[in-house]
Design a protein that fits this description.
It is built from 13 helices and 20 strands. It is of the alpha+beta class.
């Protein structure tokens, strides 16, 4: 765990050292959320940023007698935080705790969860929009990285049992990064990976559609049982609305943004990679040569990464490597030969990706004469690319996906 706490805008008892301002820079989806963050940003522009070393003792005190025992346990083990088991004085019933720091006090509403993922974070964002005059703090046993990023972007505090903390108020920035990781089975049933992830993509591609279980199963080419488990899980996450009962029960996606973040969080691929080289004079020629060669050979494929992004949402000028998903059972050497290339160990400009099944090619789209991964799959793949992939993913989400 980090051995420093960041204190923003306070008047520390010791001389401070300037540190990087880690304020949220994302944008929200509601006027209330935007106004809250803009108001905070204006305050920050006239305040200094300091670092207080941990051995100086706690600098945040919390009146937290109204909180549950588990929440108190998590707070007590958070460095820099002192818990006072006193009733918040002068506070209404809607106030769960009072934070004291640098001579200031701030009432907060507190939500306690066993685990928080991306879907949980978006529920809290909606809840926080109804608290314009009060901060919201999440205390959880476990939080995912995606959940913490969403909460931080929207000005919601978080403290978890894994050692992570981020509380940002006018005059205060407490930020800790823990080393613990959520349990692998913590996502519960129907984790959105593999075939279950295909169900999620089907919902994202038709966010306004009303779905029966069998219709969704046919669209995603999965069993009705799996489609039902995914829908039931998403209902539990408050990402789906439902009407009716039994076979006539109809469901509709309620929050496409949250579902995309949840799927991106849970879908983990470990594809087999085969590097190759195809002679070409430019990225455009390479993309065309690969596509026409595989099409003539009758091999299905879906380009992804920077190459695919350059066709639908250009962002970077250089495409050093063309990545493409190919069938799980295809012989890589034959695919490379059909693309006019050959396997190499160094200097590859083509990389074949093969998963345990053909899920990554689900709902592939055509851009001109080239088959590319669908926009949501492309977004996911870009996020994992170390070569400015996250920037490209953000650009694709803004320009093509739209939520």
């Amino acid at each position: 765990m980090s051995d420093r706490l960041d204190l923003v805008g306070a008047k520390p008892a010791v001389a401070g050292k300037g540190v990087v301002d880690r304020r949220c820079t994302g944008t929200g989806n509601t006027p209330a959320g935007r106004e809250r963050r803009e108001r905070r940003a204006r305050r920050f522009t006239t305040r200094g940023i300091f670092t207080i070393v941990m051995n100086k003792g706690p600098f945040v005190k919390i009146d937290a007698a109204r909180l549950e025992a588990e929440a108190l346990r998590i707070l007590r083990q958070t460095p820099g935080v002192a818990v006072m088991e006193e009733q918040p004085r002068g506070a209404g019933h809607e106030v769960d705790a009072i934070l004291h720091f640098a001579g200031a006090r701030a009432p907060v509403a507190v939500e306690v969860k066993r685990r928080a993922n991306a879907a949980t974070a978006w529920q809290l964002v909606q809840y926080a929009d109804g608290l314009p005059d009060m901060a919201l703090l999440l205390i959880a046993d476990e939080t995912t990285t995606e959940a913490r990023e969403i909460l931080e972007r929207h000005g919601i505090g978080v403290v978890d049992g894994l050692g992570n903390a981020h509380i940002e108020l006018p005059g205060l920035l407490l930020h800790l990064e823990g080393r613990g990781r959520p349990r692998r089975d913590a996502a519960g049933p129907a984790r959105l990976s593999g075939k279950a992830g295909v169900v999620a993509q089907a919902l994202l591609l038709a966010p306004e559609r009303d779905w029966h279980v069998r219709d969704l199963a046919e669209e995603a080419d999965v069993s009705p049982g799996l489609a039902h488990r995914v829908l039931a899980r998403l209902e539990g996450e408050e990402l789906m609305t439902a009407e009716g009962a039994g076979p006539k029960r109809v469901r509709r996606l309620a929050n496409a943004t949250a579902l995309l973040d949840l799927w991106a969080e849970e879908n983990v691929d470990r594809p087999h990679r085969t590097p190759g080289y195809t002679l070409s004079r430019s990225p455009e020629e390479l993309i065309g040569k690969i596509g026409s060669g595989l099409e003539a050979h009758g091999t299905a494929y879906a380009m992804t990464g920077a190459a695919a992004a350059s066709l639908v949402a250009p962002f970077v000028t250089a495409v050093p490597v063309v990545q493409l998903w190919v069938p799980a059972k295809a012989a890589p050497e034959q695919v490379l030969h059909a693309a006019g290339g050959e396997p190499v160990t160094d200097g590859a400009n083509v990389v074949l990706l093969q998963a345990k099944d053909d899920s990554p090619m689900a709902f592939r789209e055509q851009s001109g004469d080239t088959w590319i991964a669908n926009r949501f799959r492309l977004y996911l793949d870009l996020r994992g690319d170390p070569r400015r992939g996250k920037e490209q993913a953000t650009h694709l989400r803004q320009e093509v996906i739209g939520f």
